[in-house]
Amino acid sequence: VQLVESGGGLVQPGGSLRLSCAASGFAFSSAGMSWDRQTPGKERELVAAIYSAGAITHYADSVKGRFTISRDNNKNMMYLEMNNLKYEDAAVYYCRRLFPVVWGRGTQVTVSS
Fold this sequence. Notes:
Layout: E1 2-6, E2 9-11, E3 17-24, E4 33-38, E5 45-50, E6 57-59, E7 67-72, E8 77-82, E9 91-97, E10 102-103, E11 107-111
Parallel strand pairs: 2-11
Antiparallel strand pairs: 1-3, 3-8, 4-5, 4-9, 5-6, 7-8, 9-10, 9-11
């Protein structure tokens, strides 16, 4: 079972990034998945979740209207489109399989002018 994130980087406030998560080793299409993030000294927090068919999604209040979670079950991929990024969005972003829990290694998002 493996989750590999990509797409992080440096972006200016107001900018956009698209994170990707490549999944392998399990039945991705039937798995609930999420993006979580963590900054130093803080607990990891849920950013967005998506259920198997992609029709049901959930977002943290702090990202509603700016971030969009999606998945392509044919490619075993999950995405996080992040728009209008703010300084407080800077974090390491992790891909997670919800049950049983599996974490990726994370990808760094830096928001700086």
